[in-house]
Amino acid sequence: MTSQPAKKLLILPGDGIGPEVMQEVRHIIAWLEAKRGLSFAITEDLVGGASLAQYGEPIRDDVIEQARAADAVLFGSVGDPRWNHVGFEKRPELAILKLRQELALFANLRPAKVFDALVDASTLKPDVVRGLDIMIVRETVGGIYFGNPRGIETLADGSKRGINTEVYTTSEIERVARVAFDLARKRSNRVCSVEKCNVMESGLLWKEVVTDLHAREYADVELTHMLADNCAMQLVRNPRQFDVLVTGNLFGDLLSDLASMLTGSLGMLPSATLGAADSAGKCPALYEPIHGSAPDIAGQGIANPIAQILSFAMLLRYSFDYQAEAQLIEEAVAAVLANGLRTADIMSEGKTRVSTSEMGAAIVNELDKAQA
Ligand code: IPM
Ligand code: MG
Asked: Residue 50, CB half-sphere, CA atoms under 13 Å: how many?
């Protein structure tokens, strides 16, 4: 049993299946408090479409301040087709983009790990994905998502032009590459840096900066470079060649969705987005599943809560250093899968189909067994 001051946790369930899968995390939090003596000071608020409906904006400044004050943020997902018609300044997605920007959460860690029990759930052959364990480190506060100029302008002939700009500076590239090299040292010690230096100056600089940093500080780590299009191909051809991948915002968005499907389901994968530690050593951090709000299945009780639960396990591990509890949760998830329980997204013949809440309850049950 640990007895430490309560950890300040901000929970933002968001839209669609977000609130449903977050409910299963609450059961796990209750279990940790009851059975492991942990204590959390939890605040909750609305983001995304839920916040737009209530307050007319995707995220309030007050929520950003709560996120700053928290020890960690557990995020669900945002996105709601009812707001498809509104401009970028009012889209539900702005909630996550603003949190990343305001808290300077520049390094998005997206693991793609294949559970043994789910090796058949992948659309790729079991031999290609068995044992897969890669980590994509995606830059999240720069690149074409935020570069200027941007906008849609009207030309003299009345037609329009849409503009976005890919921009990266030396320091932006260095800080995210550092995260990748540091992670690699704790894994298989290999980093592949991904850009399009054959057509983009920002990619050329990316490659130069990563190469220089490697030579200066990380010569013990194996570094390779790959063009982003080739990387997409290699991820499908032979994904196990990779350990840590580091790339910019847009390529990372694409490649991490691609990599996640190697594991069989988007519903399985957590992510962490980290900022730089302040002078007191506090590191802003937000944890969220890779999947979105899945409005097509929201409210039916069939969503897979595992990605949200594993995001919480990552939070325990990276932000609170509760290694034992994180491992307990990860093992409970593996056990439930080994027992053949499956939500709809990972269902296969001969397995037992369960609802969101049944999956959550089964994981808590495994926790109980492990603790007994
Ligand atoms: C993600 C999502 C977001 C992104 C959206 C919701 C803005 O796709 O986290 O990958 O593009 O970064
Ligand atoms: Mg995405």
From this structure: 17
Nearest ligand atom owner, CA of 80? 1
Q: What is the pLDDT along the chain (372 residues), one digit of tens a residue?
A: 545 789 999 999 999 999 999 999 999 999 999 999 999 999 999 999 999 999 999 999 999 999 999 999 999 999 999 988 888 888 999 999 999 999 999 999 999 999 888 998 888 999 999 999 999 999 999 999 999 999 999 999 999 999 999 999 999 999 999 999 999 999 999 999 999 999 999 999 999 999 999 999 999 999 999 999 999 999 999 999 999 999 999 999 999 989 988 988 788 899 999 999 888 888 999 999 988 999 999 999 999 999 999 999 999 999 999 999 999 999 999 999 999 999 999 998 999 999 999 999 999 999 999 998
Instruction: Assess contact for 171 and 164: CB atoms under 8 A.
Output: no
Prediction pTM value: 0.91
Cα of 270 vs centre of ligand 2, distance in Å, is 12
In DSSP terms, 226 is beta-bridged to 194
Shortest CA distance to 246 belongs to which of 134, 135, 113, 137?
Answer: 137
Encoded tokens for 137 = 């480190």
Q: How many CB atoms lie within 10 A of CB 260?
A: 23
Mutation test of ligand 1: which of 47, 83, 96 has the most ligand atoms closer than 8 Å to its C-beta? 96
Ligand 1 atom at shortest distance from the alpha carbon of 108: 9
Q: Is 97 in the pocket of ligand 1 (CB under 6 A)?
A: yes
Domains annotated for the chain, with CATH where assigned, are 1-106+275-372 (3.40.718.10), 112-268 (3.40.718.10)
How many whole angstroms separate alpha carbon 160 and alpha carbon 139? Answer: 30
Cβ neighbours of 1 (radius 10 Å): 6
